[in-house]
Amino acid sequence: ITKSTTSPDGFGNSLKVDIASTNTPTGSQNALIQTKIEGQDLQDLAYGTSSAKQCTLSFYVRSNKTGTYCVQIANTANTKYVLFEYTINSADTWERKSVTFSGNTANTLNNDNALGFDVNFHLATGSDDHVSATSTWTTYSGGSYKSTSNQVNLFDNASNEWYLTGVQLEVGTV
């Protein structure tokens, strides 16, 4: 994993995942890029109330391996997640992706520097962690990393690469 100057217009750098050796995940083996957001930074979402706000996650992605990938937002303190599929349509081309999810009216977020959200960009997932995509908060069991069975295995070829930049989490549908 390195910083790369390969980036879409308006961005100077990206995160690059360069596969060095192949692997086929089994069971609950997972490969993903993750960022953690503290609960105190998410309080304006009003989770746990009837005013819980809808959010949109947008990002730019590129890979030489086209197909279906998954992005998951998890609230591990409450064992809840939302899970989306997105498709890389054209090899070696920057594509902007966007997913919108509902606010969680049932569960609050920690109001401190403890974990609020994990944002997980899946690159390969073992079959034990395959579930259906969902845009509503869903309870998980048996580990917090989930993707659909459509998730590509980026690790199936040592020449595969995956890039990410411009990640934004915003209140609302844009």
Give structural notes.
The protein has 174 residues and is mainly β. It is built from no helices and ten strands. It has strands at 2-4, 14-18, 30-38, 55-63, 67-75, 80-88, 95-101, 115-125, 134-139, 161-171. The strands form two sheets. Strands 1-2-10-4-7 form a five-stranded antiparallel β-sheet, with no helix packed on it. A five-stranded antiparallel β-sheet has the order 3-8-5-6-9, with no helix packed on it. A hairpin with a 4-residue loop joins strand 5 and strand 6 (80-88). The chain starts with a strand and ends with a strand. The model has no long low-confidence stretch (mean pLDDT 96).
Q: What shape does the CA trace take? A: globular
> How far apart lie the N and C ends?
29 Å
Question: From the alpha-carbon coordinates, what is the Rg to the nearest angstrom?
Answer: 16 Å
Query: Count of helical segments?
Result: 0
Q: Considering DSSP H and I runs of 4 or more, what fraction of the residues is helical?
A: under 10%
Structural class: mainly beta
Strand content: over 45%
Number of strands: 10
Low-confidence runs of at least 5 consecutive residues: none
* Average pLDDT rating: 96
Helix and strand run: EEEEEEEEEE
Major β-sheet profile: 5 strands, antiparallel
Record the strand order, biggest sheet: 1-2-10-4-7
Question: Which SSEs are present, and which pair or pack?
Answer:
Blueprint: E1 2-4, E2 14-18, E3 30-38, E4 55-63, E5 67-75, E6 80-88, E7 95-101, E8 115-125, E9 134-139, E10 161-171
Antiparallel strand pairs: 1-2, 2-10, 3-8, 4-7, 4-10, 5-6, 5-8, 6-9
